[in-house]
Amino acid sequence: MRRIFFIIIISLVIAHIYGFQWPVSDVVLISTFGESESSDYVKGLNIGGKVQDINPIDSGELIFYSHHGASPLDLPSGLGAYVIYQHKNGIRSLYGHLDDNSLNTESYEVSVSDKIGTMGSTGTAVGAMLHLQVIDTEFKKYINPLLSLPILKDTSQPLINGIFLSGETGRVALGIDQIVRSGMYNLSADIRDLSENTSYYCPLAPYSISLFINGENLANIKFESMLIDDDQMVLQESDGISYSDLYQSDWEIFIGNFELNPGDVMIEISVKDFAGNEGVKKISLKVTE
Amino acid sequence: MKLIEKIFIILLFFCYFFIFGRPLDPEISFSPLWVENLELTSVNSEDDEDYLIDFNLDGKFGYLDRNGSIIFSENLLYGVAIDQNGFISYSRQNDVLVLKDRVGSFINTIELSGYPYFSANRRFIISYDSNGISEIDKDGNIVWRKTFSSSISTVSADNSLVFVGTVDGRIRLIDLKGEILFFEDTRTSRINIVYGGSVSFNNDLMLTVTGIEPQLLSLWDKSGDNYQVQSSWVLSNELRRHTVTGFSEDGLYAYMEAEGELLVLNLRNKKLNSIPMAGRLQNIIFPGDSGLVYIIGRDSGGLYLKISEPEGNSLFFSRISGKEAMLRKDLNRIFIGIDESLIGYDMESM
What we know:
The structure holds two protein chains of two kinds.
Chain A: H1 2-17, E1 29-31, E2 36-37, E3 40-41, E4 45-47, E5 53-54, E6 60-66, E7 81-86, E8 91-98, E9 109-110, E10 117-118, E11 130-136, E12 141-143, E13 159-167, E14 170-173, E15 178-181, E16 183-194, E17 203-204, E18 208-213, E19 216-222, E20 225-229, E21 232-235, E22 241-242, H2 243-246, E23 252-260, E24 263-272, E25 278-288
Parallel strand pairs in A: 15-25
Antiparallel strand pairs in A: 1-4, 2-3, 4-11, 5-10, 6-7, 6-9, 7-8, 8-11, 11-12, 12-20, 13-14, 13-16, 16-17, 16-23, 18-19, 18-24, 20-21, 21-22, 24-25
Chain B: H1 3-20, E1 28-37, E2 53-57, E3 60-64, E4 70-75, E5 79-82, E6 86-90, E7 97-101, E8 106-110, E9 115-119, E10 122-126, E11 132-136, E12 142-147, E13 152-157, E14 162-166, E15 170-174, E16 180-185, E17 191-199, E18 205-212, E19 216-223, E20 226-234, E21 245-247, E22 253-258, E23 261-266, E24 271-276, E25 280-285, E26 293-299, E27 302-308, E28 314-320, E29 325-330, E30 333-338, E31 341-349
Antiparallel strand pairs in B: 1-31, 2-3, 3-4, 5-6, 6-7, 7-8, 9-10, 10-11, 11-12, 13-14, 14-15, 15-16, 17-18, 18-19, 19-20, 21-22, 22-23, 23-24, 25-26, 26-27, 27-28, 29-30, 30-31
C-alpha cells in the first residue's frame, strides 16, 4: 500500500515538473535550442528520424495554420506547413515542416492523444523532420522545450574540443602549460553536446556553460529562454547575449572577457547537458609581463 | 377585350415592372489578343518597355511585353519573388540571395538567410523561422531589419508604410527607414492574434483582421500620428489562417478574404458586401469604382476565374483547367496565365 502511494506521489511530481509530453513517440534530436543555424539561434528543437504522427505537447486550441503554398499571396516561410496551438498559462507551441496534406485543421480543440499532423519536409527541411517551438506569450519569450518535456536518456558528456584566447597579440588555441602575455582577453571554446539517438555524428547545443578562473566563477551561459532586446534575439539568462556576440563560428562560443595578470592561472570550463552530464576542461596558463 | 380591361392589363404590367423590375446584369466580353506558349518561345532580351508582365507559372518565371513577346524566361529552382523591376530566384536553403533585373542581369547579392517576399514595389526577406523581416532596396542593399518575439503572420506594403502583424496579436507600421511609426498590442479577444492587415495607399486607413472570439475585421482611421478603430465587424466564420486584405486602387473599397467569400467594404457608406468565393484567393485585381473585381481562386474543384462588381454582383465565372493560374492587368488589358500558356485579352464591359 505504501509502495503504491509512493508511486502515485512520484508520478504526480514528475507530471508537475514535466508539464508537456513529447510530440512524437520516437525522439531523435538533430538540433536544439540556442544552436547556430542559418546565422541565427535555433528557437526550438529539430526532431528527425522516421516519419511519425505528431501529437500536441499539451491539450490546447489550434490558433494558426499555414499550408505550404496554399496561396501565392501568403508569406513564404522556412517552416513550411506549420501550426500553432494555444495552451494554458499563455503557453503556445509551434510545429513546423509538417506534411502539407496531414494538417488537422477541422478540429480546433485537441487533447494530447489527438494527431495534429505528420512529420514532413516542407520549408527548409531537406528530410522528414519536426521543428518544435514553445513560446511564453505572457513574458514574450521562447522557452527551451527541453525544460518542460520529459528528460531523454543521455549518458554522454558534452565535449569541449578547444579553448581559444583572443587578445591584442592575436588568437591562440590553448594547450597544456601555455604561456601567454598579460592583458585583456576574450575566451571562446568549441563546445558540443552529442545526440545519443542518431547513428551519425550529430552535435547539439548544451544546457549551460560556466567559466572559472582560479576558482572564481566569471561567466555563465544558459540556453533556457530567448527574448527580443533591441531588435535582436538574445539569451535571457546569459546577460542578454545576441547570436552574433555568442557564436564565433557554428560551434565556437564566446564565453567571457577578462584580464589576465602575471602569474599562474587555472582556466576551467564546465559544460552541462539537460540530463545532468558534465564535461569539464581545465587548462593551466603561465601569464608573463 | 374592353378598353377598360386593356388599360387595366397595361397598368398591371406597368406596376409589375415598377415594383419588381431590375436592370439587366452587365456582361463581360473578352477579345483575345495573343496566346504565348511559355515552353516554346525563344527569349527576346530587349527590354525597352515600361510595363512588363511578370509571370511565375508551371516551373517557369520571367517577363513578357504587352504584345506577348517573352523578354526573359527561366526555370524555377524552388521559388521566386518577382516584381516589375527584377526578381530573386531561390532554392530551399540559401545563405546568400541574388537579385537580378528583368532581363536576368546580376544586380547584387544579399547576405541574408530567408525567403524573399515582394509586395507592390517593396522587397523583403522573411527569415526562415518567420520572426524576422528585412527590407532591401532596388539595388539589393539591406535598408532595415527587424526581429520579433513571435512569428510574422502577415506583411503588406502598398505605399510608404509596411504593415507587419504577428501571431502574438501585435501590429506594427514601419516606414521606409525601418522606424516603427505605429504599434498596437491588440487585446480585444479571448485569443489575441493578427491574421491579416494592410494600409491604404494614402496611409489614412488601415484594415485588420484579428483575434479569436471575437474575430474582428476593423477599419482604423489615422488621427495625427496614431490610428484608431473607426468601425469593427465581428466575423461569424472565424479564420485560423492568414487572410489576404487590401484596398482597391482608387481607395474607395477595402477587402478581406473571408471563409467562403470575399468581403468588400464600401468605405463611403461603410457597407460590407459579399462576393461568394470558395477556397483560397490566388490573385486579385481590384481597380475600384472604375472597374470590376477580378479573382482567381482555388477550391476543391480546382482553379476558377471570377469577375464581380464591387457590390457583389457576379458577372463572370469560369473553371480553369490547369494546375496554376495568374492574373495581371494593365489599363484595359487583362493577362491570364494558365500553366504553360499566357493569354492577353482586350477587355470591354458592355
